[in-house]
Amino acid sequence: MKPATCRQISTDQRSEERLGDWAGPESGEEWRHKHNRLSCETDVHESETELKQRRMEALIASYGDSSSDSDASPPRSKQPRHNNSNTEEQSICLPPPPLALLDPPNSLGYLETDHGGRERSFPRVEGNFALHVFIPVHIPATTRKELFHYLKKAASLLPGLHVVDVDILLNNLCKDDQKLEQVALGREFHISLGRTVPIRAHQIDSMVSMLCQKLQSQKRYWIDFSKWEVFVNDDHTRSFLSMEVAACGLAEITRQINAVNEIYRLHNLPEFYKDPRPHISLAWALGDISHSLKPLVEELNRCHANGSSSQKRIFTCKFSGIECKIGNKTYKICKFPLQ
């Protein structure tokens, strides 16, 4: 600050010398004191202004070079222009998304191809998802060894039977006992609590939420599969060899079916059969061949009645929970550990 003040005063002194030629001794001296005071105040004000300006410029410069700019002000690029063109070329060369993304795997379109001559129970509609509410059932390992003898007899009496959900002729599996036990009996079976129907995507959340609220708290109970039976679907396009729940567990399953019916009604979906007959299906055949399956069922029930087992049931298992499958996604409505 001192050099700037001295320069300013020396300049003013020359002006005072010129003014002293016409001013008197007293007035000239008085004028010099007043002018020196004003000059010093002006110098201090101008110096402070210059200092603030320099600080502001330095601050702006530091922010301009900083890499911590906000999103609203993107940082300046110091790289050559050709780098940006390379980035654009790389983005243009990216491969297109896979076509599978356009048709999600949990939609009905994923299951469009029919298997084994089976027909759809409802037509494919874009945006619809197949809904199925059921009790999962696993046949105990000790029971499988007994059941595959029944399946062997069924295959010999009716060669056109297929394994459920596998689309393999039961007769072909009978050549290998281990494969027959694993493929035909080692899978998960289902006791349906509602019809398999299509629902829209916007109905999924409310459907799952209501099922959980209604069926989440369930008590454990035993399920007895006591007899062989024949079932035919509504369209009479397939017949099933099944084991029916006719005694123990029937009352509990019926209550659960009624609860599912209430939720179906709220979603404008068709309810389950008026007089439900809970069962699991082990084999199927094309068309309505109930006339051929009934003699087979009678023979199997006769074999069971004459068997070494004194129990009336074919096998028993504990209720393990309720699941809801929508498309290819399964929701656990209530679940108990397998025992």
Report on the structure:
It is elongated, with a radius of gyration of 44 Å. The chain has helices at residues 2-20, 25-65, 81-92, 141-157, 170-173, 177-185, 204-215, 250-266, 290-305; strands at 128-137, 162-163, 189-192, 197-200, 222-225, 227-232, 238-244, 279-286, 315-318, 321-326, 329-335. Among the domains are: 1-44, no CATH class; 137-191 and 218-323, Cyclic phosphodiesterase (Cyclic Phosphodiesterase, Chain: A, Alpha-Beta Complex). It is of the alpha+beta class and 339 residues long. Helix content is 43%, strand content 18%.
What is the structure about, briefly put?
By secondary structure, the chain is of the alpha+beta class. Helices cover 43% and strands 18% of the residues. The chain has nine helices and eleven strands.
Keywords summarizing the entry:
disordered N terminus; four-stranded antiparallel β-sheet; EC 3.1.4.-; Cyclic Phosphodiesterase, Chain: A; 339 residues; poly(U)-specific exoribonuclease activity, producing 3' uridine cyclic phosphate ends; elongated; 9 helices; lyase activity; nuclease; five-stranded antiparallel β-sheet; hydrolase; alpha+beta
Low-confidence stretches: 1-26, 63-80, 87-92, 96-116
What's the overall average pLDDT, rounded?
76
Proportion of residues in extended strands: 15-25%
The portion of residues assigned to helices is: 40-55%
* Main β sheet profile: 5 strands, antiparallel
Q: Quick one: CATH superfamily of the domain at 137-191 and 218-323?
A: Cyclic phosphodiesterase
Q: Structural class from helices and strands?
A: alpha+beta
Counted by DSSP, the helix tally is 9
- Sequence of secondary-structure elements: HHHEHEHHEEHEEEHEHEEE
Ends distance: 92 Å
CATH fold group of the domain at 137-191 and 218-323: Cyclic Phosphodiesterase, Chain: A
